[in-house]
Design goal:
about 90% helix, Calmodulin binding protein, IQ_motif_EF-hand-BS, mainly alpha, rod-shaped, about 210 residues
């Protein structure tokens, strides 16, 4: 009985084995394609994850490099500006020192201030003296010209009246000629007196202003 059972089991097992082999042969292609698909997806996942990791790492590295480059450039620019400011400061101070020294040297040895001041004072005094001399000469010339004009007028009057002796006054009767001559002489004397007084007043005003 046991042998029969074993034989029947063996036949069933062989049938199942053969069916499994047939199923395996049928599904081998599908299983291969499924395995390839799974491997493809898994490898793509690994590649994408690796790419993202490297991308993130490269981005951080790039940002760090940019930050370091910016810091370096800023330090360099700051140093360059400080050097420019120092050079400008030194140049400005050198210019000021040269200006002060040249001014001192010029005032001390080339253009002496006190000597120039004395020269200007002397020149001003000389100009004032020459001005006074010129004004005095002009006044003298004016007086001489006035005296000459008066003499010429008197000569003209004398020449015009020398043949009019019949109009001269006598002890008994006052003449017409003498009366007119006296009036003319009086008027001339008053004019001369008035003009001299006006000139004296002008001189006094000018002296007060000075």
């Amino acid at each position: 009985m046991e042998f029969v059972k074993l034989a029947t089991q063996d036949s069933t097992l062989s049938k199942e084995y053969k069916s499994l082999i047939r199923d395996k042969e049928k599904n081998a292609g599908r299983e291969r394609l499924a395995a390839i698909t799974i491997q493809k997806c898994y490898r793509g996942y690994l590649t994408r994850r690796t790419y993202l990791v490297y991308k993130h790492f490269l981005k951080r590295a790039k940002d760090g490099i940019n930050i370091l480059a910016c810091k370096f450039l800023l330090r360099k620019l700051k140093q360059h500006r400080l050097e420019q400011q120092a050079a400008l400061y030194m140049s400005d101070n050198a210019t000021k020192i040269q200006k002060v020294f040249r001014g001192y040297y010029s005032r001390k040895y080339i253009h002496d201030f006190f000597m120039r001041k004395r020269e200007i004072i002397e020149l001003d005094a000389h100009v004032k003296a020459q001005k006074g001399i010129m004004l005095q000469g002009i006044e003298e010339k004016r007086k001489k010209q006035l005296l000459h004009d008066n003499n010429v007028k008197d000569m003209k009057i004398h020449n015009a009246a020398k043949n009019l002796h019949h109009l001269v006054s006598t002890k008994a009767q006052r003449g017409v000629y003498n009366y007119r001559i006296e009036n003319i002489i009086r008027e001339q004397q008053e004019k001369i007196k008035n003009s001299s007084e006006k000139k004296k007043e002008k001189k006094n005003i000018l002296n007060k202003k000075k």
